[in-house]
Design a protein that fits this description.
The complex is a heterodimer of chains A (111) and B (113). Chain A has 111 residues and is mostly beta strands. Helix content of chain A is 0%, strand content 59%. Chain A contains no helices and eleven strands. Chain A has strands spanning 4-6, 9-13, 18-24, 29-37, 43-50, 55-58, 61-66, 71-76, 85-93, 100-101, 105-110. The N and C termini of chain A lie far apart (41 Å). By secondary structure, chain B is mainly beta. Chain B has strands spanning 4-7, 10-13, 19-25, 31-37, 43-49, 56-57, 65-66, 76-78, 87-94, 103-104, 108-112. In chain B, strands 2, 4, 5, 6, 9, 10 and 11 form a seven-stranded mixed sheet that branches. Chain B has a four-stranded antiparallel sheet with strand order 1-3-8-7, with no helix packed on it. In chain B, strand 5 and strand 6 (56-57) form a beta hairpin. Chain B is globular, with a radius of gyration of 13 Å. The termini of chain B are far apart. The chains are: A mainly beta (111), B mainly beta (113). At the A-B interface, strand 4, strand 5 and strand 9 of A face strand 5 and strand 10 of B.
Amino acid sequence: GEDVEQSLFLSVREGDSSVINCTYTDSSSTYLYWYKQEPGAGLQLLTYIFSNMDMKQDQRLTVLLNKKDKHLSLRIADTQTGDSAIYFCAVIKAAGNKLTFGGGTRVLVKP
Amino acid sequence: EADIYQTPRYLVIGTGKKITLECSQTMGHDKMYWYQQDPGMELHLIHYSYGVNSTEKGDLSSESTVSRIRTEHFPLTLESARPSHTSQYLCASSQTQGGSPLHFGNGTRLTVT
């Protein structure tokens, strides 16, 4: 089955850019998502990209997709303390029934 | 803004008790899901449903059961709670079409003493 991997932890200074990486194994994954989880809360959909796209930008967020390497990244520009959270990538096939989540990356923003 | 609600937010209960975690959504979504989240963050799918009267077991074996009598309601029940059931439980829903994103509730943090 699909396997999705993320690094566990990222520390970044306020105002710098953060880059969170994700790799997946199934090349037929069609929809790729980024979710944010703040302490004590559920997961909030941040952004998504389709497999026929290489890049998507939404305000401070940029998603890059390298289909050849099966690598997805989320860049947060001008990182703020409110960006401290756990970030999950998730992938699914077009005809798939269930999302496969990565293990989550805990991002800590230092003032 | 997703309209999916979970109650209670926090629950502390003794071993052996029966509990039901509630999940309701007002978006008319056919698909609903229950995830169990480790303290180490990883999410495990324990149950899902494609619609009324449909329930399926997820990837992680769970002693809990679910029911789907109404589209908007997907409760999870533990007949006899144990300390190993201590976890965060997250409910989610999505539209039927393939690739639709999941919308999550705020979760129920369960502690079994």
